[in-house]
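Quarterly update from the structural biology core.
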Amino acid sequence: MDSKLLISQEGFIKTITFNQPKRRNAITNEMASQFRDEILKTREDDSRVIIIKGAGGNFCAGADLDPSLLEGGGGFDVTAFLRATYNPLIIAMREMNKIFIAQVEGTCVGVGFNFALACDLIYSSESAKLSQIFTRIGLSSDGGGAYFLPHKVGYHKAFELMATNRIIGSQEALTLGLVNGVVPDEEIETHVINMANRLADGPFLALQHTKANLRIGSTQGLAEALEAEAVNQGANFVSEDFFEGIMAFIQKRKANFKGK
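Predicted structure, tokenized:
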């Protein structure tokens, strides 16, 4: 049987692919657990950039709801499931100082949309369609949407998008600041790979500290952000990458960063 979650790594770039194309890569409970496990493993491996994508021209159609779970929940404890799967993987993505890139194509709705929002960069194909679709079937958000969306677009727009569950196109998503860029469908994979290579070959220690600084700056206060910047800049200042960056600048050549 084909795996519904594909993992590959080339150099410092890992790719995680949702692989249920006949269901537009809707996430089964088993896929969710596998995804969580892979994200947690990523904290310890040598990857620097993680691309998250879907097979067959779609990103993710949200949760693959089993009809047996209906009718009063069918004995399924959704709260326990979310606490055990989605919640730890989303927190790990945000707290891990590695770079996550969402390659959004086709359908990107429900928890799939929120997986994308948990990433550090989001690139969308022109034909992509995004929605916080939960309320269409009588659910509220999960996967961190209630945190990510108002931080991106403000409370009132976030409420509108969630309450009306309307589908937005890639250009509106760009206008709202929900994606970093919109790319022609046939160019999306090349664009994402090029960005991943640029980041993986860059000053990775500084990039890690940049993510850490932004995380503290967006969740805590000015004093905490200033302190984080001071501490992290101290580590950067004595790094091999900083010395290489300075020498490359003086010698008018491209820097050869080692991530140290």
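The chain is about 45% helix and 15% strand.
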